[in-house]
Amino acid sequence: MAMGRGSANKVTIAFGLVFMFFLLSSEVVNAATYTVGDGGGWSFNSGSWPKGKSFRAGDVLVFNYNPSIHNVVAVNGAGYKSCKTPGGSKVFTSGKDRITLTRGTNYFICNFAGHCESGMKIAVTAA
């Protein structure tokens, strides 16, 4: 039995979907995991930690810290600069937070009193 035009279109669409799945899967497989502050964890001396590292969208940052004295807040550029938590910001409090980077600059602060102002903040740019 011969295939009509509709069948060829379905095969092309199916091939395209499979191809897109493999592209997306390879991006996830290539994602790297970074521990913020390396062995020292998320602390007051983490500000320069991103320097010299190359990040990509999909990479995961692991924030290790004592949740009774710190947290991690994903903020926008204004929140980072002012050390203020904008409304709607995501606050992480587990002490072992895993945050996936998005394309562009990702900003994180600790919003415990005085911590951000004392340098407990990082800006990570992901390609």
From TrEMBL:
Keywords on record: Copper, Disulfide bond, Metal-binding, Signal
Domain of life (superkingdom): Eukaryota
Record flagged with keyword Metal-binding: yes
Annotated transmembrane regions: none
Name of the molecule in the record: Plantacyanin
Phytocyanin domain residues: 32-127
Gene Ontology CC, one term: plasma membrane
